[in-house]
Amino acid sequence: MKIGRNDACPCGSGKKYKKCCIPKYDKPVATPAPLKIHRDEDFFDMRGFKEWFDKAWTPDKVKRLSDQEILHKLHDMHIPMTKEQFLIDIEGEVDFPPVYELWKKRYSLPIEHKDADLVLFAIPELWRRWAPDQIALFMLEDMMEAMTESGSKTPKLPQFETIWTTFKERFILPNGIRSFDEFYERFESFFDIEAIFFDFEGEFILECRANKDGQERPFDRLISLYEDILETLPNNDLENRLNIRRSIAEAHFYAGDYDLGERLFESLTTEHPTWVWGYVGWGDMYNEASLLPSILNKNKAEEIYRRGLGLAEGGEREALKERLGDV
User: Fold this and answer.
1) pLDDT for 96 beyond 80
2) How is residue 95 annotated by DSSP?
3) Other CB atoms within 10 A of residue 184 CB
4) Helix (H) or strand (E) holding 37
5) CA 38, CA 61: separation in Å to the nearest integer?
6) More confident residue, 73 or 27
7) I need a surface site. Which of 63, 68, 203, 242 has the fewest CB within 10 A?
8) How many Å apart are CA 72 and CA 79, to the nearest integer?
9) Crossing angle of helices 201-210 and 157-167, rounded to 10°
10) Would you give the DSSP letter of residue 293?
């Protein structure tokens, strides 16, 4: 039985699957075929696997082919494709599987054909080459994969800004989508852009604090990103919206706008007095010497944590107790 994104996580945490154990970045990995074992149990015969792998098509192998080589191989499979016909076939599409299904029907492509995988990989490869401005879902996934795999010295915020702008202009606004959940209901995607955003948030903050670009107000771009997500996707689940509002308040503190940050946290905790993480984020602004040494105030932090402990509900109150212990 397939677990839905909004179903309870099977690990028993009580959280939704999408907020707990759902894979965030990695694409599903195919289960390898069993290895053949000789009578000598300590010797594994890899020859069969190697021979199969050498003949099998992969995205990298197709990428190394020229346009003409790809078209030639498609013609050998009785798919008389041209660039002009390809551009007609992808018009109006946002991903390659519908095009693959179209070709299977039009050209009676047998699933068991030895080069069937070539077709599956050729469509997105030709799309990248011939229609790079018609952003497809797999191209957005390319961008997210590049971001998650980029080294620690590569800034992440500029990459995510590009991803968000592409996501918004290509998939969200044209389709009237109002939440991440609605997007996942409409489109199949291996990557979870919502999870990537929150998992890299710490790096975004560090990059703004480092301000290697020498911007006058480096946190303004991060705050604008937060606010744009809230405005563009107003129907996101409550936890998501609260976390972004908390992030906006924190960013104002990091930017030196302490009074505004105070007002935002006050508003957040007043509107949602039982939400633990509003108090955690607020108190942490005064409790982390390494983050904001100029406003370090353990008494203020303790006051906020205790206020939250008296109002917050649920097992997450333990986070407040732990911080009170540290104070």
Assistant:
1) yes
2) S
3) 18
4) strand 36-37
5) 31
6) 73
7) 68
8) 9
9) 130
10) G
> Which token pair is 175?
């389709």
| Of the candidate ranges 42-56, 222-236, 242-256, the one whose mean pLDDT is the lowest | 42-56
Torsion of CA 201, 206, 207, 213, to 10 degrees: 150
Residue 24 token pair: 């965030």
pTM: 0.78
Confidence of residue 31 (pLDDT cuts 50, 70, 90): very low
Q: What is the DSSP string of 216-274?
A: SSTHHHHHHHHHHHHHH-TTS-HHHHHHHHHHHHHHHHHTT-HHHHHHHHHHHHHHSTT
Q: How far apart, in Å, are the Cα atoms of 224 and each of 47, 75, 245, 296?
A: 55, 50, 12, 27
Each residue of 214-246: b (16+ CB within 10 Å) or e? eeeebbebbbebbeebbebbeebbeebbbbbbb
Residue with tokens 């604008």: 224
Domain ranges of the chain: 55-133, 135-236, 263-326
Helices (H), ranges, 131-200 = 137-149, 157-167, 180-186, 193-199
